[in-house]
Design a protein that fits this description.
With about 220 residues, this protein is α+β, with helices and mostly antiparallel strands. It has helices at about 1-20, 55-90, 100-130, 150-175, 205-225; strands at about 25-30, 35-40, 45, 135-145, 175-185, 195-205.
Length: about 220
């Protein structure tokens, strides 16, 4: 019995430690987006773009898999149509509305508005729960604005500043910690705008889990009203 309790206590301690190990996300943009995620181990890259296959044998296998998948899809659709025909031929009982639809129908437009307000409140709670514990250890933004016309370049540079700086200020106010560096400048010797962006952030899984559970409890309470 004592051994079982020790094992259980060890497992609980391990789970707690894992919940408080930071989850790290790194996003970079230099001509293409690259996403890296790290948890307990070094950051590993998650491919966002599919590489074009050049091996003829692999291309043939992919084509065969696609053909078989389409055939299975057609067979499923045919079976579904047959079931629908059989169901329409018989006297089927009227489908009952689910809980949410029944609530909206019973309260009308006011019920729908109340439900939407509650949904917005729950989403706001979840977002605040996450961002209040989010740490952005690095956010570097470099925008070299260039066009074929110097006047257009200056106007676009001003527009970019009025759009980007308030957004950065908003992020800084709503996250726990944010270290950022930005450069937005016009380039009159080029014709194409170049953007370099690096974002590295971390958060403990405990706060993600607590935010999700809290939102679920609030949603269940809202449905019970």
């Amino acid at each position: 019995m004592n051994i079982f309790l020790l094992i259980l206590a060890g497992l609980l301690l391990l789970i707690v430690l894992l919940l408080f190990c930071p989850l790290v996300v790194k996003i970079t943009y230099q001509d293409k987006v690259q996403l890296k995620i790290g948890y307990l181990f070094p950051l590993f890259t998650i491919p966002l773009e599919k590489k074009e296959e050049t091996d003829p044998r692999k291309i043939a296998k992919q084509a065969e898999k696609k053909r078989k998948k389409e055939e299975k899809k057609k067979r499923r659709e045919e079976k579904k149509k047959q079931k629908q025909k059989a169901a329409s031929a018989e006297d089927t009982p009227e489908k009952k509305d689910n809980f949410v639809v029944a609530k909206i129908k019973s309260k009308g437009l006011g019920g729908l508005i109340e439900l939407l307000k509650e949904l917005v409140r729950i989403l706001g709670y979840l977002l605040n729960k996450i961002t209040s514990h989010l740490v952005i250890s690095r956010m570097d933004l470099s925008v070299a604005i260039a066009t074929e016309d110097a006047a257009q370049t200056a106007l676009k540079c001003g527009y970019a500043c009025t759009a980007i700086f308030p957004l950065l200020s908003f992020i800084e106010q709503h996250v726990k910690k944010c270290r950022h560096r930005e450069q937005i400048y016009p380039v009159f010797t080029q014709t194409e705008t170049k953007v370099d962006f690096v974002l590295k952030a971390r958060i403990m899984p405990f706060f993600l889990l607590s935010g999700a559970l809290g939102s679920l409890i609030k949603a269940l309470k809202a449905l019970e009203k």
